[in-house]
Amino acid sequence: MSDESTPEAPQPSEMAMLRAEMRAGFQSVEKRFDDVDRRLEGHDRRFDEVDRRFDTIDRRLEGHDKRFDEVDQRFDEVDRRFDEVDRRFDEVDQRFAEVDKRHVTMDARITEEEAATRRHIDIVAESLRGSLNVVIDKTTATGEKVDRLIASNATEHAAFLDALTDHEVRITRLETARSKGKPATT
Question: Quick check: helix, strand or coil at residue 1?
């Protein structure tokens, strides 16, 4: 038998082998992409949960912002009251200089506390992930402290008004006695 009489099976061409190898490689890459997609879907679910948690935190912070707005309004009211007290103190003699100093000191303390509280809230807002309960506790404590300061200011304000009224009564008695030519009694 001669070589020409028996047909031999055709040999795959080099191009066909390269195509087969490339198909296998692409299938491997496609499988890896599928694995990555499955993993990313898991991450997407986790991110969705984190987003839901941040939404909850945002809602809670809005409540805190409202409380701070109320505190700011209280500070405005306290400032208006201090302005009125300052106007009355201008009419009183040097014995009230010490009261003025106390007022200025209290105003500075309130302003410092407000600034410190605002800075603290800004810092806490950036680091909410691990310390939400600490923020809530500190916010509550700050609110209580502000309430105590407001109550203290109201008490001092009432004492100032009483002292001012008593002083005005004594001046009126002296002026009346002087106009009648009699010695004044206190």
Answer: coil
Give me the residue spans of the domains in the chain: 23-180
Residue 82 falls in which region: left (phi positive, over 0), alpha (psi -120 to 50) or beta: alpha
pLDDT in tens, 49-93: 999 998 898 888 888 788 888 888 988 898 888 888 777 767 766
What are 146's two structure tokens?
């502000």
| CA distances, 34 to each of 18, 27, 40, 47, 171 (Å) | 24, 10, 10, 20, 94
Residue of 5, 21, 163, 144 whose CA lies nearest to 89: 163
Residue 131 has pLDDT above 90, yes or no: no
Written as one letter, the residue type at 174 is L
